[in-house]
Amino acid sequence: MCGIIGYVGSRTAVPILLDGLRTLEYRGYDSAGIYVPGHSPVKAVGPIDNLAAKFAESIPGTTGIAHTRWATHGAPTEANAHPHLDMSGSIALAHNGIIENFRELREGLISQGIKFDSETDTEVLAKLIGTLYQGDLLKAVQDSLSLVRGTYGIIVTSTHHSDKIVTARLGSPVVIGLGIDGNLISSDPSALLAHTKDVVYLEDGECAVVTKDAYEILTLKGKRLTKTPETVELEVEAVQKQGYDHFMLKEIFEIPEVIENTIRGRQILSKGKVKLGGLDGVFSKLTSASRLMIVGCGSAYYAGQVGRYLLEEYAGLPTEVELGSEYRYKRNLPDKESAVIVVTQSGETADTLASVRSAKEQGILTLGIVNAVGSTIARETEAGIYNHAGPEIAVASTKAFISQLTVFVLLTVLLARERGMSLEEGKKIVEELNNLPDLIRKYLKNTSDIKTVAKKYAGYRDAMFIGRKFHAPIAYEGSLKLKEVTYIHAEAYAAGELKHGSIAMLDENFPIVALVPQDDVYEKMISNIEEVRARKAPVLAIATKGDKHISEVADDVLFVPKVHPILQPIVSTIPLQLLAYYIGVEKGLNVDRPRNLAKSVTVE
Ligand code: M6R
Predict the structure, then answer these.
(1) Partner of 486 at 20 to 30 A CA spacing, among 283, 415, 550, 585?
(2) 207 catalytic per annotation
């Protein structure tokens, strides 16, 4: 949430900062701003293009800091846009996170006669740094942060120190990029790729002074630290649209390749087994776990729900699933043999991260299913499985969700084969999993039926998604996708629940999207469809190829290939993602950046 980028080097800073902001825009797009020492901050409400339009003539200066905002405190206005200045107007700060005690700090500063220009928590920190500044910018930052409660990833520069940027982190990511003609600081390595792949990650409680050709890392208390730079294994093309109209569409069409990357080197076909190198160090602990707790937020939580069904069904392993925002605050009663598995694309989600920390405090084994390599959660969990889905830029998760489901298939087979799954069954699954990318590739060659159906359903105000067993969480994921990308009111239910209340809402204007593959609950789903048809609700079914009966009970059908039941949720999800995408496009919406959202939810 919010993106920060700073540059200190020998080139003009503004174009570099604008490019960086465009890459970071997915983290928030309520407003944006740039500060170059010696000039007033330039700010604009809305997307980065609005800010860029204000730089018809670039301003000189080879140091600068910039920010793209997801509003937390104060409306998305120019006054509230970052960077914020201290009272002398010579120190500027951009911030990702929340200063929790900003009200009391603000009152103290106001009583000293300091005036504020915005409603933000960030400006309080800028003003605080200004009051504590006595010629040493780093010290002023360190002293100010010792008074602050909350989370931050900050970059600070000043007219008096225009050759340096001070940065610090607690709870919000900061990465330093080591370039040839200057150094950069960002909240996400993707914004550095055009300049360098050599990076240094800051950990919580660390700060740094970055200049054109050097950087120094310290603790907030001033102890010097030595860190070896790491290489980011990403190509710049991975964060570009490459001819697609939107990142969301590109990312859906990347799914076959993503599954290949997720399973590469992780199957032993002849033995019907799975090998997950990231779990080697904890393998015996994991296989002796008597209970698993899966934790995640949003789509990652729904992936966890599917994971629970699979682990219980095939590995016979008792599994629970919790939202990160609940797990971290509730009383958890783990036994010694339980393990917590957190699922997260970004690896930075505040509630998921807090859940990791809370589980660790209880001495529980914590594992991560994480996409963003080197992210905070990847580093703080004891062991884990990387998704290898590549960067996901569209705010709505698509390929990362599919990769999370794929990892749960791998994990299920790994544990199930230890717990009695037959060689034959193991082989069947890993072989089918191996063939899945090509099957999906073929499926994605013709999605015209989804486009047609999207046009028909784009005019409805409401929708209800239903499914059973493995497909109950997929119904929830489908409804989340539709909501976030199209703003259509959508709900989801395990289909058997409808008659306990929600069916009261249905009529001819309230369509149902029914996930009805030919599995062991098919007959039950057909009965549920009959029930909603009796209330005149239009029915769009996601069914498996070869189902001859479904067209008799549904108004529209989107067929998907029939695969092993453990893989069916992966396949059934894709038309739901495309449905949301095409409806969003039909409605003329910004599908990559839906209103009010940000990709990485680093606030609580
Ligand atoms: O980065 P994470 O996987 O931890 O993010 C969790 C959710 O914020 C995320 O899945 C969100 O629900 C997406 N917008 C869904 O499309």
Answers:
(1) 550
(2) no
Complete domains list, the chain, with CATH: 3-238 (3.60.20.10), 241-444 (3.40.50.10490), 446-594 (3.40.50.10490)
* pLDDT per position as a tens digit, 404-459: 999 999 999 999 999 999 999 999 999 999 999 999 999 999 999 999 999 999 99
Residue recorded with tokens 């170059």 = 36
Ligand 1 contact via 395 beta carbon (within 6 Å): yes
Helices 399-418/423-443 angle, 10° precision: 170
**Cα of 238 vs its chain's centroid, Å:** 16
> Strand pairing partners for 94?
155
Active site residue 2: yes
- The residues facing 464 across adjacent strands are 491, 512
pTM comes to: 0.84
Ligand 1 binding pocket includes 397 (Cβ within 6 Å): yes
d(CA 75, CA 457): 33
Q: Which of 252, 321, 345, 593 to mutate to test the pocket of ligand 1 (most atoms within 8 A of CB)?
A: 345
Sheet holding 150-158, edge to edge: 84-85, 91-99, 150-158, 165-170, 206-210, 215-219, 224-225
Phi, psi of 35 (to 5 degrees): -130, 130
Please name the helix (run of DSSP H) or strand (run of DSSP E) that holds residue 294, with its range, or none.
strand 291-296
Ligand 1 neighbour 576 (Cβ under 6 A): no
Supply the residue whose CA is at minimum distance from atom 7 of ligand 1.
298
Q: DSSP code of 340?
A: E
Looking at residue 60, the DSSP 8-state letter turns out to be: P
- List of E strands, 313-388: 319-323, 338-344, 365-370, 383-386
Does 391 score more than 90 pLDDT?
no
Q: Is the pLDDT of residue 225 over 80?
A: yes
Tokens standing for 97?
Answer: 């996170």
- Please report, to the nearest 10 degrees, the dihedral formed by the alpha carbons of residues 399, 538, 526, 405 taken in order: 10
For ligand 1, the distance from its centroid to the CA atom of residue 357, given in whole angstroms, is 19
Tell me 171's DSSP state: B
Ligand 1 pocket, residue 375 CB under 6 Å: no
